[in-house]
Write a structure and sequence with these properties.
The protein is an alpha/beta fold. The chain folds into four domains: about 100 residues, Uridine Diphospho-n-acetylenolpyruvylglucosamine Reductase, domain 2 (2-Layer Sandwich), CATH 3.30.43.10; about 170 residues, Uridine Diphospho-n-acetylenolpyruvylglucosamine Reductase, domain 3; about 170 residues, 3-Layer(aba) Sandwich (Vanillyl-alcohol Oxidase, Chain A, domain 3); about 325 residues, no CATH class. It contains 40 helices and 29 strands. β8 and β9 form a beta hairpin.
Length: about 950
């Protein structure tokens, strides 16, 4: 069942939104416009402490679409908000009106000046930009903690910074050009003189307004000096009015005002950055000081470029991670006042690195420390130190009380008052009942983050939060002349306090900026500038418990980059947010119609299109596996009849696989007789007539696998391995157009024979299965019954774990490792080939270009680099598409819901060069989807190794 826009949802909207829809649908397809309850809820989720549902959601893909929508919004006086990845923390990506989200596209880039500049469209992730620049030993300046998940559009619009970029390398300081779409739909490319000329001619009032503000600010010496002073430290409170001081040309002022404007002045359709050097040599030290004052005194001795980063970690923050794996044992022994600085030094060469280390230690020589200062330039060691820093925020999220939100604020204090300011902040937190909150941050910039947890279940909770925020703001501004928002953006959270920080005069100019750019106040209203003093207390997010598997979710969105259904239906974050709303509605009992609608639509939106691949866990700060939660939901929905069928399948597995092989053989025969085109038309028609109940067929559907009945006898040697071909590889052989027409077990046996292995075959293999297919559908008991039976056989065959067990399908290995006796050494094809066969085989590298797809299970087992190593040993050029994560085939989902596979592999074909004629993976069903989407044969990596190996080195 796929979901389409429902006309009734449109008709239920206020009149101007109905008209807005009617105008937008003329140039944007219906399947990119949403008014239904589940998607307006899910697509409106961001990482902040607020929850606001848009009335309409539109997925935008081109600048022309944005320009036309802005014109419609202006004509109909309908507010619009554009969002990128939604990782922002201050509520700037939310609206109760029209939400425009970047749904595909926006991924073009261009590198010039040998990596000196890079033009980026706003949908590119920050980490992707750095990946493109890696060959040039360059990177973009901004380095927010969310760089792997945040898009360039959001990074620029929020002036996001980070640990190392400070105020010198942020977006404001490193932009070279910008493409902007204004509230009236006008387009400006600041790199093109003709575009600038046309814009100036057509917008005389805007240009005059900018010039007037510039001249007035520069004529006011006191205000000008104040602006210069306040932007010496990080500051994202209000608009970047330093642009009027730093630049004279109105076009330059406009482009720099757009940085940090959070979508309230226009849309950044592209940005060109001047890049910075990516240093090859690094060293880090975790310095422990007796108290926070001494740590802050140490920071005052340090500055860039001597050190790249200095992260302050208070005792509470260190406690939050001291029990994590790999943490130094001495963390648990520190005094209650002990405070750490995590310092990193970077250099282009080793000599400079060593000189900088010595200078740093010398500067701190007279400041007392708990332990001697020791730097390490060993990558594994300094990465372990930085895990302390990266683990703090998720640690708070993981230990928080059920139902609480994690709130993270950031203030920048002048470095000379940092010690007193941090102590005052701690006292304030303790006074308001946030004793468990932690303080850490980019001390080199005076940038302090404080993290605490809070429920918003009743008025008292809101009042407590209000009193705390008001006291912090007053203390920070009046006592320490701080920036209330250093790098997270003003958003809704600090919009009511912009005037407090900047004063009436500067705030008046900020309001005038908003009026000049957006006279109708239609672009992201109530963000940065607001007339509502209580906006930071409204629409606070409730976090009702759903299930212990997902209850710790902070809705940060870090999971989304891996999700195969992100562009089709929903992401893990959106699934969890929807389930929270369903639980809330059930408990309230006040809106049963909405509740039932969400429950009904969630079946396809959340459950059926979840690949349950678990890749979300690999980037979630709290290692939440939403796939496991989906399997749990399926389990709760199983019926007695379904459980009986699953039990029957478990008890008669050989018969079931025999029927499957018979079906594959029949389909192969029909394909051969009718030909590809005719048979494809027949099956497509049948699927359509059946309402999708007949599985999708493609020319890459495998024929039946060769029989296991005549396995060759194995040589007798000291090398022994138990080989268990998975039920998938026992059932599915090669497709008609695959490069190699042998079944996988034949290839595996060829490799093992070349390497001189004695192969032990489990008895009655045709009856055996690890249970994974049943587990994925929620039939846990039947799945466990099958895995227990297989475990018993494997223990016997392996002499109670003496010999390794080889299985040729990675998802099966992942389950077997998880549920079976730890005495068994269970190895995936990739791991076994890499660790046990490569050194034994005489391999001749092929001159070809090959594609490699690392399955989700192999990724979770940490096999990516081993996969790469095998492929590079065998082939001259290896392509591993950066944007392709999970293939979305998900067992049988590729047959039942092929649109999931198609959406997940949207970028596959474009990533494969013309000379790439074949691909390799390690899961037969994944290979079907990869071949179907790319048009080239995909088979197990074992085929490539066998083809390139002439035999054993000692044979």
């Amino acid at each position: 069942m796929s979901m389409r826009p429902v006309q009734a949802d449109i008709l239920a909207l206020p009149g101007n939104y109905q008209q807005f829809y009617q105008e937008v649908v003329r140039f944007i397809p219906q399947n990119r416009i949403f008014a239904d309850p589940i998607r307006t809820l899910a697509y409106g989720v961001d990482a902040s402490l607020y929850r606001i549902n848009p009335k309409l959601v539109v997925k935008i893909r081109t600048p022309e679409e944005v320009a036309e929508i802005f014109k419609i919004a202006d004509r109909l006086k309908t507010p619009v908000t554009i969002r990128a990845a939604g990782t922002s923390l201050s509520g700037q990506a939310l609206t109760d009106s029209v939400l425009l989200i970047m749904g595909g596209g926006w991924s073009q880039y261009h590198i010039d000046d040998q990596g000196g500049t890079i033009m980026l469209e706003p949908g590119i992730l920050g980490a992707e930009a750095n990946y493109y620049l890696k060959p040039y030993a360059r990177k973009i300046g901004p380095d927010p903690a969310s760089i792997n998940y945040a898009m360039i559009g959001g990074i620029a619009a929020n002036n996001a910074s980070g640990m190392c970029c400070g105020t010198a390398d942020n977006s404001y300081k490193t932009i070279a050009a910008m493409k902007i779409i204004f509230a009236d739909g006008a387009f400006l490319d600041t790199a093109e003189p003709e575009s600038c000329r046309v814009f100036i001619d057509q917008h005389p009032d805007l240009i005059a307004g900018i010039a007037a503000i510039r001249d007035e600010i520069n004529a006011d010496v006191e205000l000008r000096d104040s602006i210069i002073h306040k932007f010496k430290i990080k500051n994202t409170t209000g608009y970047g009015i330093n642009a009027f001081v730093d630049y004279h040309n109105p076009i330059d002022i406009i482009s720099h005002l757009m940085i940090g404007s959070e979508g309230t002045l226009g849309f950044i359709a592209g940005v060109t950055y001047r890049t910075v050097v990516e240093h090859a040599h690094k060293a880090s030290a975790l310095m422990i000081f007796p108290d926070i004052k001494q740590a802050c005194l140490a920071v005052m001795r340090l500055e860039r470029p001597l050190v790249a980063a200095a992260e302050l970690l208070d005792r509470t923050s260190l406690k939050s991670v001291e029990d994590n794996a790999g943490m130094p044992a001495y963390l648990k022994e520190l005094d209650e006042q002990a405070t750490a600085l995590l310092v990193e030094i970077r250099a282009l060469d080793r000599a400079t690195l060593e000189e900088s280390i010595k200078s740093t230690v010398d500067r701190l020589a007279d400041i007392p420390v708990v332990l001697p200062i020791t730097f390490t330039d060993i990558k594994a060691e300094y990465e372990q130190l930085w895990k302390i820093r990266s683990g703090i925020f998720p640690a708070v999220g993981g230990i928080r009380r059920q139902g609480t939100s994690v709130i993270i604020e950031d203030i920048a204090f002048p470095k000379e008052v940092l010690a007193d300011a941090v102590l005052a902040l701690r006292e304030c937190m303790n006074r308001h009942g946030y004793e468990d909150g932690i303080i850490y941050g980019h001390a080199l910039d005076g940038n302090v983050h404080f993290v605490f947890t809070q429920t918003f279940d009743g008025p008292d909770d809101v009042i407590r939060y209000q009193n705390f925020i008001n006291e912090v703001c007053s203390m920070a501004v009046e006592r320490f002349d701080a920036s209330l928002k250093a790098e997270h953006g003003t958003g809704r959270n600090m919009a009511p306090f912009v005037e407090l920080e900047w004063g009436q005069k500067a705030y008046r100019y900020m309001k005038e900026i908003k009026r000049i750019f957006d006279p109708g106040n239609l672009l992201n209203p109530d963000v940065v500038i607001t007339d509502n003093p209580s906006v930071y207390l409204e629409n606070l997010k409730l976090m009702p418990p759903v299930n212990e598997i997902v209850d710790k979710c902070m809705e940060c969105g870090f999971c989304e980059i891996n999700c195969p259904s992100l562009q089709l239906t929903s992401s893990p974050r959106q699934r969890i947010a929807t389930q929270r709303e369903i639980v809330r509605l059930r408990a309230a009992g006040t809106d049963p119609d909405r509740q039932h609608r969400l429950e009904r639509d969630y079946v396809y939106f959340g459950e059926e299109t979840c690949a349950t691949d678990g890749l979300c866990q690999t980037t979630c700060p709290l290692a939440i596996n939403t796939g496991t939660f989906t399997k749990h939901l399926r389990f709760t929905q199983t019926t007695a009849r379904g459980r009986n069928i699953a039990k029957f399948v478990a008890g008669h597995f050989q018969g079931v696989t025999s029927l499957a092989k018979l079906g594959l053989a029949g389909a192969h025969l029909a394909h051969t007789v009718l030909g590809t085109c005719t048979f494809e038309k027949v099956t497509r028609t049948a699927r359509s007539v059946s309402g999708g109940r007949i599985p999708k067929w493609s020319k890459w559907l495998p024929k039946a696998s060769a029989s296991l009945g005549f396995l060759p006898a194995s040589r007798d040697s000291d090398r022994k391995v138990v080989y268990f071909p998975s039920c998938v590889s026992r059932t599915m052989g090669p497709a008609r157009e695959d490069k190699d027409q042998r079944s996988l077990h034949q290839v595996m046996l060829s490799l093992l024979n070349k390497a001189g292995y004695t192969v032990i075959y489990p008895p009655k293999m045709e009856e055996m299965c690890c249970g994974m297919p049943l587990e994925s559908k929620g039939y846990f008991a039947a799945a466990d019954e099958m895995s227990a039976a297989l475990e018993k056989v494997l223990l016997a065959c392996s002499n109670n774990g003496q010999y390794p067990v080889l299985c040729d399908t990675s998802p099966c290995v992942y389950r077997m490792r998880r549920v079976m006796d730890k005495k068994l050494t269970i190895l995936d094809t990739v791991e076994f080939i890499h660790d046990h066969l490569l050194d034994e085989l005489d391999i001749r590298k092929s001159p070809e270009t090959v594609a490699v797809h690392v399955t989700c299970s192999a990724t979770k087992m940490g096999l990516t680099e081993k996969f790469r190593s095998i492929a590079e040993t065998c082939a001259a050029k290896v392509i591993m598409p950066e944007k392709v994560k999970c293939c979305g085939f998900a067992g049988d989902k590729g047959f039942e819901i092929p649109e999931l596979n198609e959406s997940a592999l949207e970028h596959l074909k474009e990533a494969l060069p013309a000379d790439c004629g074949c691909g390799y993976s390690n899961s037969r069903t994944c290979e079907i989807g990869l071949a179907d989407k790319s048009g080239i044969s995909y088979q197990s990596i074992a085929y490539l190794v066998d083809r390139c190996s002439l035999g054993g080195k000692n044979s």
